[in-house]
Amino acid sequence: MSRPADPASAGQTPSPSAGLAAVSTALLAMSRHLEVGDVLKTITASARELLDAEYAALGVPDDHGGFAQFVVDGVSDEQWRAIGPLPRQHGILAAMLHEERAERLADVRKDPRFEGWPAAHPDMSDFLGMPIRDGDETLGALFLANKRCPKPDGGCGFTAHDEELLRLLAQHAAIALTNARLYERSRELTIAEERSRLAHELHDAVSQKLFSLRLTAQAAAALVDRDPARAKGELQQVASLAAEAADELRAAVVELRPAALEEDGLVHTLRTQIQVLDRAHAARVTFDNQGVRALPPAQEEALLRVAQEALHNALRHSGAARVDVVLERTGHGARLRISDDGRGFEPSLVRRAGRHLGLVSMRHRAGGVGGRLTVHSAPGKGATIEMEVPGG
What CA–CA distance (Å, rounded) separates 19 from 322? Predict the structure, then answer.
């Protein structure tokens, strides 16, 4: 790796006590936040201030070698919008997601991995990159550019002392980021548990209403010939009970609507919910996305609802030790597959109301967006539910 001179000639190296005081200030700033987004912004701003750089960025990896999140400091919102898409699996920034060591360069533009930048991108020269790691996992990578100091003949830039300070900051950033993620997952689990509780309560209440409605309708049918007046009263009660049941079902839809879908999209929402289920149940629950990005809102909601129903069946009824969810691209559409290694069932002979109504609901959701649902299962052979939807 190329290194600029560590210059005593460029000025005095900051005293250890001054450096540690600055790191301490940065660590206190990070510890004040529990939201992942806030922690990422604070880490980035703290790194830029700590090393007195013009620009700082923090990239968080996705599952495909690129960035799931990218936070910048020192670049205006207007300039950031003009820069355009993030680097994917190329360039020094993306390469840093796979590096276990720091990169300190006198001029990033001379690095063989440098592939240029968009017209709106600020001009950068000296560069310092540092991975943020938790054990063997790379949580992110910090990038700093353009140290604020005199640069005679391209000298100065980031020093070995800067690199050590950033390494210390990155170690604590890993702790802060891990804690923030755990906090968010804990909150998601609490929300999921509350929604599950509410869903069960609503299910019980609506079931009671439907049971009463059924009995009242039967009574009305028996009275039609011999006592039309009483039959009319019973039918009015049927209408009232049906209205109450509809109101409670409407409340269920409003309360349990996937609000995260609009903000985060299907892939992120599914991944988050499956991570929560994996922690909440003894069964291993996995998620793999194979090339699916954005789909029309109706398709995304239908896929999410079918996934939730199938996961509920697998985790509550099948006795599975493992449930695998795969979302894969098919032309302009997508295919969702939920497979479990549980006790299985015979689809044509299913008589348990909950399972039966679940399958009917899933088929209805698939058909409602122009898709189709298939069920593969046999006693002792687990179950696989597949749903295909078009892209538009």
Answer: 49
Two tokens at 18? 């001054």
Evaluate whether 108 touches 124 at the Cβ level (below 8 Å): yes
Q: Residue 153 region, left (φ>0) first, then alpha (ψ -120 to 50), else beta?
A: left
Choose among 386, 250, 272, 283: nearest CA to 328: 386
Calpha distance 242→229 (Å, rounded): 20
Question: What is residue 369's DSSP assignment?
Answer: T
Question: Whole-angstrom Cα distance, residue 5 to residue 158?
Answer: 9
Tell me the per-residue pLDDT of 218-237, one tens digit each, with 9 for 90 and over: 777 777 788 888 878 877 77
Residue pair 124/29 in contact (Cβ under 8 Å)? The answer is no
Q: What is the CA radius of gyration of the chain?
A: 29
Query: Quick check: 338 and 375 in contact, CB under 8 A?
Result: no
Residue 343 · residue 374 · CB < 8 Å: no
Q: What is the pTM of this model?
A: 0.47
Q: pLDDT tens digit string along 326-366?
A: 999 998 889 999 999 999 888 777 544 344 547 877 888 89
